[in-house]
Amino acid sequence: MRRTIKPISVNSLTHRAVLTAVFTLGTFIFGFAQSPASGDSLILSRGILLIVVFLLLGFVLLIAEKLLQIQAMRSGANDLSRYSIFPQISKWFESKPKPYVGDAPVIKLSKGYNLHLAGAPEKETLQRTASRYAVNATDFRGIAPIPKVVVTVGQEVAAGDALFFDKNLPEVIFAAPVSGEVIEVNRGDKRAITTVVILADKTIRYNQFLPFELASADRNQIVKYICEGGVWPMIIERPFGTLADLHRAPDNIFISTFDSAPLAPDANIICSGKGAELQKGIDVLNRLTGGKVHIGLNASQTESPAAEFTQLTGAEKHWFDGKHPAGNVGVQIHHIDPIKKGGRVWTLGVQELITLGALFLRGRHEADRMVAICGSSFDKNGYLSTYVGASLGELIADSTKPNSRIISGDVLSGRQDSKDGYLHYFDDQVTSIEEGNQVTLFGWAVPRILPSVSGMLPNKILGDIQYEPNTNTNGEPRAFVMTGQYEEMLPMNIFPQQLMKAILTKDIDRMEGLGIQELAEEDIALCEFACTSKQPLQSILRDGLNMLKEES
Amino acid sequence: MAFIDKIKSLEPDKKKSPFLHTVYDGLFTFLYQPATVTKGGVHIRDGVDLKRTMAMVVLAMQLCYIFGTYNIGQQHFMAIGQHTGYFDALHLKLLFGLVKLLPIWVVTHLVGLGVEFYFAYKKGHAIEEGFLVSGALIPLIMPPDIPLWILAIAVAFAVLFAKEAFGGTGMNIWNVALVARVFIFFAYPGTISGSDAWVAGLNYDGGHITSSYSGISGWVLHLFDKLWGFFGWSTIGSGGTSVVDGFTGATPLALAASGGWEAVTAKYSPTELWWGAIPGSIGETSKPLIIVGAIILLIMRLASWRIMVSMVIGCAVTGIIFNAWGFNAFMNVPWIYHFYLGSFLFAMTFMATDPVTAAGTNRGKWYYGFFIGVIGMIVRVMNPAYPEGWMLAILFMNSCAPLIDYFITQSNMKKRLSRV
């Protein structure tokens, strides 16, 4: 699955000579096979003459090629294989490496699927602002269900002030993304805190922290500063997707600089003008891990990723060329340096990294988020600049068609919400698609225009069209029947179906052996989409991860 | 929409009358794709479900059905020496085939779906569409004259013991259709092996073979005679004729086992073997039409090309080894002609590629298909008791498939756990 393109080494003379010899020998044998058994001397002599001519021609061509390469070497070319008079057959079969990648190795992922959906975000910026923002405690895994709320309704807070914290982990505060008045503290089942809502000021007032001298600080001071700045919850620790452990340095830190999910926001737009923050963030992360900071770059598009990403220093860059889920950090970890048994790695999103960098640059909790409004149910799609946890109703401004579903996140692993809801903490995308609560006469038999990875619908004939999907399940749940379907959707050396069965049978050793710790819901989401049996793979996977976490 | 509401108002209560509810649910979901929407997890789902998947597999078999219908008639009329040309009296051949095939199809589905409905009601789950494919396959792998009561017992046995005992669709270890066949093969061998089983509508009394049209099928055939007479086409007549001199219903495989390739070519030309106007199970004979079915399955990504390719390789390799060995006449049959004989292609296309019973890992599929090819050839050529090997080879490899997957996942696990 993993194939790395390396610059082809200088072709040796012997290599060419062998090829020429094989070719001429082939012609020779072919010529004899064609000649009549009587042994016509004319054909024989002509054949020998032909061979001699071939050999001579080959020799001349070889000399010419070598002279060309010597000349190229003298004029300072580093990739000699480009200077050749012979066609290179192997190159015909591999897609051309993008010019912006240069000589860097590219990890090519052949598996996966790009869902072409209508309603991609347009490049323009929508002029909408939200007045209400909420931090949702249920967005964070691994914290106690009833965190300690330190604000009361009616209290004024500045951006970066603590809203609540986990009683088991009082150092890590969950900060207000904006300044303003706390207007609601909502509770769910068993009095668990769900959201703390802030009515934002017109201009954001920041809680100003002291400037931080990164070079002279030790790790504990850095961790303390990040916690005080309210940025710690933005770091996610794999395998379980929980808050990062304060006291244990991760093996490595991974950042994917592109999102390949359907209708995902373009990271180049998000990061534009944020080069300094990104670089600062990388510098900070480098101090937190004993290993390396890895960033995954997109090599599947015609245009290069933004200079903000390609010019980062202090991080190891990896190019990925492939379909969704190539942009998922889990897939990238698997190909860069997979999580070992008992190992821990950290991941950050691009926007979270910018927030981290800004904290160290300016001493402020800047929770700005560029959010994509996308999906076929919106009148107008585009990007808008807001803050973490903005009110969905205000972001979408009543622009959805009737009978639509509003999703915080993408259509594969986002969460269903309503106009009264708020953008979830890690989301930078609001999608809306039509609800599919309609029956279809003989829906299982007639040809229909629906997104599908199989060959059973006339998708191939329709070509590259953009689908307007709805939320119908297009069938009823069944036991696992088809095989090989999930493997086609997951560019990792993992057996998803066997893993799911191991989880369903609660076989923890097998789960672990089959690589459950390398997966998160978003990685398996495409398999769930493709599943003919309509199995809930993401929830099965989460059950397995919870089981494993309890065990360890 | 009003019509839908009317249908929905008919829905029986699940608690009060569970059986009626099961039947209603089965019929409703057949008629309409339900309005259920995604909840948690992904928000959009692939446009394909198991119903469509199964329906498409059945669709890929339809050419075999059409040719099978024709070939039942063709073999019968060849035996009695009437309308021996391939395109003579097509209406009679198709009607004769239909009269034989339709009862088999109806009994298979009545029994199979009956058991399926009963279990769905007992377990309280929806009626699943797994039997659609099994039910379509079973008639194609039966001899045309199979007694219907034997068929009914076999189908009931297969669905009960090979499928429902293991938990229904998706849970079975052995291919349901093949279990039905293997049941008949061992319980009533006379009806599904030997030379007398493959040509329909003949009476064997000692050495004298006659043909007569009696019973319900005879009544139907004579009923249509009036129609044919009206058009001035040839009619079925009164029957009672004896077969042509030197007639034998022996399949090419039986001939190959007794006298090698020479004995086969003495009776059938390779072209005949290829196009399939030869005695055999109903759907297995026509190679090009099965290949069309295989191509449909591959385009729709319903069958694993890995299993198909590795099975061909396994069969070819074993055939080449046998050619080199040359121990008996059957071993000397040129390896390429093994693809023309018997039911290799049918077994490869529709039986071995059943995703539930095949190996589940991609690498496992290579081993699985290859060993079906090898074992099937060994049974076919080396064992005089069994004329054809694919049924047994596939069932044997069905049993081994979990083991193959186990070793492959185990090696993956070992590699992962040894990462340092």
What would you say about this model in short?
Chain A is of the alpha+beta class and 552 residues long.
Q: Can you describe what's shown?
A:
The complex is a heterodimer of chains A (552) and B (420). Chain A is of the alpha+beta class. Chain A is 30% helix and 18% strand. Among the domains of chain A are: 83 residues; 78 residues, Beta Barrel (OB fold (Dihydrolipoamide Acetyltransferase, E2P)), CATH 2.40.50.100; 80 residues, no CATH class. Chain A is built from 16 helices and 21 strands. In chain A, β16 and β17 form a beta hairpin. With 420 residues, chain B is mainly alpha-helical. In chain B, strands 2-3-4 form a three-stranded antiparallel beta sheet, with no helix packed on it. In chain B, a hairpin with a 2-residue loop joins β2 and β3. In chain B, α12 packs parallel to α14 and α13 packs parallel to α15. The chains are: A alpha+beta (552), B mainly alpha (420).
Write the layout of secondary structure elements.
The complex is a heterodimer of chains A (552) and B (420).
Chain A: E1 3-4, H1 13-34, H2 41-74, H3 89-93, E2 106-109, E3 132-136, E4 148-149, E5 156-157, E6 162-166, E7 169-175, E8 180-187, E9 193-200, H4 219-228, E10 236-238, E11 242-243, E12 253-256, H5 267-270, H6 275-288, E13 293-298, H7 307-310, E14 316-322, H8 329-336, E15 345-348, H9 350-362, E16 368-374, E17 382-387, H10 392-396, E18 404-408, E19 415-417, E20 429-434, E21 440-441, H11 459-462, H12 485-489, H13 496-504, H14 508-513, H15 521-530, H16 537-551
Parallel strand pairs in A: 2-14, 12-13, 12-15, 13-14, 16-20
Antiparallel strand pairs in A: 1-2, 3-9, 4-6, 5-8, 6-7, 8-9, 10-11, 10-15, 16-17, 18-19, 18-20
Helix pairs in contact in A: 1-2, 6-9, 15-16
Chain B: H1 2-9, H2 18-31, E1 32-33, H3 50-60, H4 62-79, H5 90-123, H6 130-140, H7 148-163, H8 176-187, E2 203-205, E3 208-212, H9 215-231, E4 239-242, H10 252-267, H11 270-275, H12 287-299, H13 305-325, H14 344-351, H15 362-382, H16 390-417
Antiparallel strand pairs in B: 2-3, 3-4
Helix pairs in contact in B: 2-5, 3-6, 3-12, 4-5, 4-12, 5-6, 5-7, 6-8, 7-8, 8-16, 12-14, 13-15, 15-16
